[in-house]
Amino acid sequence: MNAKVALVTGAAAGIGAEISRRLARDGIAIGVLDILIDGAAKVANEIVAAGGKALPLQANIAEREQVKAALSKLRAAFGPVNILVNNAGITGSVAFEELTDAQWDRMMEINLKGTFIVTQVALPDMKAAGWGRIVNISSSSAQSGTPLMTHYAASKGAIIALTKSLARELGPLGITCNNIPPRFVMNTVMSESFVTDSHRKAMIEAGPIRRQGEPADIAGACAWLVSDEAGYVTGQTIGVNGGRYI
Questions:
Q1: Rounded Cα–Cα distance for residues 199 and 73 (Å)
Q2: Strand 54-58 relative to strand 29-34: parallel, antiparallel, unpaired?
Q3: Which of 85, 5, 15 is nearest to 53 (CA)?
Q4: 241 in a domain, yes or no?
Q5: pLDDT tens-digit profile of 166-180?
Q6: Burial of 79 (0-12, 13-18, 19+ CB in 10 A)
Q7: Which residue among 137, 152, 167, 215 is the active-site one?
Q8: Active-site residue 245, yes or no?
Q9: Is the pTM of this model over 0.85?
Q10: Domain for residue 202, yes or no?
Q11: Is residue 148 assigned to a domain?
Q12: Residue 243, in any domain of the structure
């Protein structure tokens, strides 16, 4: 296999940005993909300034042609893509009885359809190499259920099921697929948008490890899952959650 090249989606900030930085430190060339190109460029520039390889890419992951164009740029710059981290997603809070068709469809379009499209577009490179790593970022909301977020939890539950099915289908091709369901990771766009100080305190006290999660916690687990050492690990849900869900 040639040099390792990773595509990280939703990488302009938070978890995706930290995963990009961590994998770059491990010597992996990074496609920093986000719908917000300015943020993606900032992260890519940070990686390059630190001595790594990175390329900012812009795409709405639910638009196949945009994803294909972004992947073409990444391949042209660094070569075939053999690592994929599906991190991009949206969230939302609304009572179930007030949930609209449009809100439901939007959640599934980005969180589920987008992950499907990106994975399908990236897959041929991994098949050709006979080696690949796919890591899907799901959510502990899918494991425990979350009131007022049924559409979000359902979309992330589908990601866990997708992970298991891909692991079975792609394993014979030398490709692993695992997922990480974070819980209460601060310093991210999603968490800062709806977590109050009182909620933050309650979330910390609810778990056996009495601190909030950090993007670096997720990035560390992801770095192991995409490594050669994790080649016998597939179809797994690696909970990085401070022990809140066991």
A1: 42
A2: parallel
A3: 5
A4: no
A5: 999 999 999 999 999
A6: middle
A7: 152
A8: no
A9: yes
A10: no
A11: yes
A12: no
